[in-house]
Write a structure and sequence with these properties.
It is an enzyme of class 2 (transferase). Pathway: Amino-acid biosynthesis; L-isoleucine biosynthesis; 2-oxobutanoate from pyruvate: step 1/3. Among the domains are: 73 residues, no CATH class; 81 residues, Double Stranded RNA Binding Domain (2-Layer Sandwich), CATH 3.30.160.340; 57 residues, Double Stranded RNA Binding Domain (2-Layer Sandwich), CATH 3.30.160. The strands form four sheets. It has an eight-stranded parallel barrel, surrounded by ten helices. It is an alpha/beta fold and 533 residues long. The model has no long low-confidence stretch (mean pLDDT 95). The chain contains 18 helices and 16 strands. Helix 1 packs across helix 2, helix 1 packs antiparallel against helix 12 and helix 6 crosses helix 7. Helix 13 links the parallel strand 9 and strand 10. Acetyl coenzyme *A binds next to strand 4 and helix 4. The site of acetyl coenzyme *A has 15 residues, from strand 4 and helix 4.
């Protein structure tokens, strides 16, 4: 992707590697940070705050290696730190000197702007805090750095003592900070608070303003956009909203809203079209499962389940979608369930490559079968492959079969030392041959899976590529009178894609067998084998 350097008139400032790393459960190595920095640069953010050089060896090393190893195409690297300590010269404060020596072209310093924090946390006078802001900005400017100032607790501070909060903003602006960033550090603001305060500070100081919104009230993205509407031209965000406590303004909905709804071009269109991939790639590096319900980029963001929604979507997807998912690299999906009607099944068929438009009866039969099966405990929402087999059964008047089961048996042996042995035997027919195979596993389902593979791999060598990647069991207690039912969902991969299958029975192994049968049948269909229908 060719990259344009973003205009400096509006800053998308990413702090995933600093504030994002403050989230519980995230622990980034230097290599992780470098990988994320590359993803963010490719996405087109203007600034990447990499951490606090001097605060820990990892962040110090990151700044050295990022500058040596990454040829940033769009982003400028930013070092984060604090104002000098009370009572010392900025040039004598090792923390401030380390910021200048990190080599990043931009430094953000955090400054206290709430009088109570100056008294209680810094334990200094309000006047000395103003001098700390001025001296630190001037020192860093004198060392050739561009400086942004994060005014910590600005909104709470402004509501408690507006005159002092404004004094801090002015001290930052007048001493040479390019951006005065108003921070909702405790995340308690609502958009109306942010709107009023940003407008007042802009009118009072004339400074270029930024916004840094924590998400404690669930309003960080809304607060960020409210600040932009009120005149802020610098937004601080983190990928997937990672950050201290509940997180920060999420970079992806902020960028998408600015670009697609405010008409402000902040990243290249081609990068926006890769946004879903970027979000998931960063989630992979931080080792957190991407939230399926994240706006714009979640796998559920454009997934439709209600029959009535689908019937309108069939006419025009815009009727139930706020944007075209492809603009952000996502896609529309139909979820098959007992809430589906004809339209949804038709659209799902299209998604799977079946044109069902001309056969109302067939679509009706599929809808009825889905509803009956879901009443028995099946769930097709996460089992597209089982649904496709059901659909194919109706379309072709016969389910695809590659093997016919004669019987299976599983034995679990409890040993005196507390361990278990699991053995399975399957008897089946495939391509006219009777196959009897055994398997051992670390559990009964694993043993059954191994016996099945063992028996079939000689006849269908493609099965060697298939791998069970997820296995979920749910007991559907009380749903069918006093009897409980077991539902098993299996995800299978052939190395290039993944598919889900479902089985339901009163016995967990029987339910697992059904899901395995569908998984292998679907895998063989995908591999191009001709069924023995
Ligand atoms: C709102 C935010 O998220 S800001 C980002 C905060 N990020 C982090 O804290 C992560 C990295 N932090 C660290 O590694 C450590 O806290 C360090 C290296 C910065 C400081 O460590 P220590 O010197 O042991 O101090 P400690 O962590 O207890 O912090 C308190 C000190 O910071 C001072 N301090 C707090 N805020 C500020 C500020 N905005 N400007 C200057 N000093 C500050 C306090 O006055 C106190 O100083 P004192 O020890 O002289 O009394
Ligand atoms: C600077 C920052 O992270 C905050 O005020 O929340």
């Amino acid at each position: 992707m060719t990259q344009e350097v973003p205009s400096d008139d509006f800053h998308v400032f990413d702090t995933t590697l600093r504030d994002g790393a403050q989230r519980e459960g995230i622990n980034l190595s230097v290599a992780d940070k470098l990988t994320i920095a590359r993803h963010l640069d490719e996405f087109g953010v203007g600034y990447i705050e990499g951490g606090w050089p001097g605060a820990n060896p990892r962040d110090t090393e990151f700044f050295q290696r990022a500058q040596a190893e990454i040829d940033f195409r769009a982003a400028r690297l930013v070092a984060f730190g604090a104002t000098r300590k009370a009572g010392v010269r900025a040039g004598d404060d090792q923390q401030v000197v380390a910021l200048a020596e990190a080599g990043a072209p931009v430094v953000t310093i955090v400054a206290k702007s709430h009088d109570r924090h100056v008294d209680l946390a810094l334990r200094t006078t309000q006047e000395e805090n103003l001098r700390m802001v001025r001296d630190t900005v001037e020192y860093l400017r004198g060392r050739g750095c561009r400086v942004f100032v994060d005014c910590e607790h600005f909104f709470d501070g402004y509501r408690a003592n507006p005159a002092y909060a404004l004094d801090v903003a002015r001290a930052a602006h007048e001493s040479g900070a390019e951006v005065v960033v108003l921070c909702d550090t405790n995340g308690g603001m609502l958009p109306s608070h942010v709107d009023g305060i940003v407008r007042s500070v802009l009118a009072e100081t004339g400074a270029r303003l930024g916004i840094h919104a924590q998400d404690d009230s669930g309003c960080a993205v809304a607060n960020t956009l409210a600040a932009v509407d009120a005149g802020a031209t610098h937004v601080q965000c983190t990928a997937n909203g990672y950050g201290e406590r509940v997180g920060n303004a999420n970079l992806f909905p902020v960028v998408a809203a600015l670009q697609l709804k405010h008409g402000r071009r902040v990243v290249p269109d081609a990068a926006l079209a890769e946004m879903t991939r970027t979000s998931h790639a960063i989630a992979e590096v931080v080792n957190l499962t991407p939230s399926t319900h994240q706006p714009y980029v979640g796998t559920s963001a454009f997934a439709h389940k209600a029959g009535l929604h689908a019937s309108a979507i069939k006419v025009d997807p815009d009727l139930y979608q706020h944007i075209d998912p492809e603009l952000v690299g996502n896609s529309m999906r139909m979820l098959v369930s007992d809430m589906a009607g004809r339209a949804l099944v038709e659209l799902k068929g299209k998604e799977l490559g079946y044109d069902l438009t001309s056969d109302r009866d067939l679509v009706g039969r599929v809808v009825d079968r889905v509803k009956e099966q879901e009443l028995r405990g099946f769930s097709y929402e996460a089992a597209d492959a089982s649904f496709e087999l059901l659909l194919r059964d109706e379309v072709r008047r016969g389910a695809p079969r590659f093997f016919r089961l004669e019987s299976w048996r599983v034995i679990v042996e409890d040993r005196p030392d507390g361990t278990h042995a699991n053995e399975a035997i399957v008897r089946l027919w495939a391509k006219g041959e009777r196959v009897v195979a055994t398997g051992e596993g670390n559990g009964p389902v694993n043993a059954l899976d191994r016996a099945l593979r063992h028996g079939l791999e000689r006849i269908y060598p493609e099965l060697a590529r298939l791998e069970l990647v997820d296995y979920k069991v749910r007991i559907l207690e009380g749903r069918h009178g006093t009897e409980s039912t077991t539902r098993v969902l299996i995800s299978t991969s052939d190395g290039t894609s993944e598919w889900g299958t479902v089985g339901v029975a009163d016995n967990v192994i029987a339910a697992s067998w059904q899901a395995l049968d569908d998984a292998y049948t679907y895998g063989l269909l995908r591999a191009g084998e001709l069924p023995q229908e």
